Amino acid sequence: STPVCEFWQIWINSLPKTTNKITNVKNINKVYFDIGISADMEKLSWRSCGPQNVFIQNMVDFFWSVGAPDAEIERLNEIGSHVNPPIIGSWIDMSSKGGMDGGWYFPFEIPLALAAKAADPGSTIVTFTQWAESHHITQCTLIGRDMGAAPPRQTEFRFYVPGDKF
Is 141 in contact with 158 (CB distance < 8 Å)? Predict the structure, then answer.
C-alpha cells in the first residue's frame, strides 16, 4: 500500500455509499463521477459531485483527514455559506511519481462577483475580474479550489465566453 493508494482510498471512502439520502435539489439528484488519465498514463484525476446535503460532511471530513490546512477548510465553509450550492464535489489528482493533490468544486452557475471570493485576495483576482467584466462575463459555470497543504493554491473559474466570433 503506497501513500498514493491510501490517499485514493480515503477519498473514495468519503463518497456517498447509497442514494437513500439523495433528494431532488433543483432537479439534481444524481452523483456524478469523472475520471481522466494523461496520454502518457502518468497522471490520474478523479472527480465526483452531487447534492450538497449528501456530500458536505464527508467532503469536509476527507479534507481534515488528509491534512488540508485549517484556513482552506474554513474558506470552503465560508464560500459555501455565501453561495449555498445545490451541488458540490471533490477531486483528487495522482501521479506515478507519487504526487497527490485534491480540492473542491461547485459545478453550477454563480455570479462572477460571488465566485471571485473563492480566490486569494490580490492583484491577480482584480485583474481577472476586470478582464471578465470588460468581456461581459458575469457568470461562472463552475468554481473550485485546490486544498493542497503547500501553496500556491489555485482557484478554478469556468465560464462561457459570450459572442460567436473567436
Answer: yes
Of 108, 112, 109, 102, the closest CA to residue 44 belongs to 102
Give the C-alpha separation, 138 to 21, whole Å.
34
pLDDT digits (tens, 9 = 90+) for 81-134: 988 999 999 999 999 888 899 999 999 999 999 999 999 999 999 999 999 999
Tell me if 141 sits within 8 A of 109, measured CB to CB: yes
Mark residue 163 as left, alpha or beta (left: phi above 0; alpha: psi -120 to 50; beta: remaining): left
pTM, two decimal places: 0.87
- Find cell 470552503 and name the residue: 76
Q: How far, in Å, are 50, 97, 105, 126 from residue 121 at the CA level?
A: 28, 32, 19, 8
Handedness of CA 19, 49, 7, 72 (dihedral sign): negative
Distance between CA atoms of residues 141 and 106, nearest Å: 8
Give the single-character DSSP code of 116.
G
Supply the pLDDT for residue 20: 47
- What's the gap between Cα 121 and its chain centre? 18
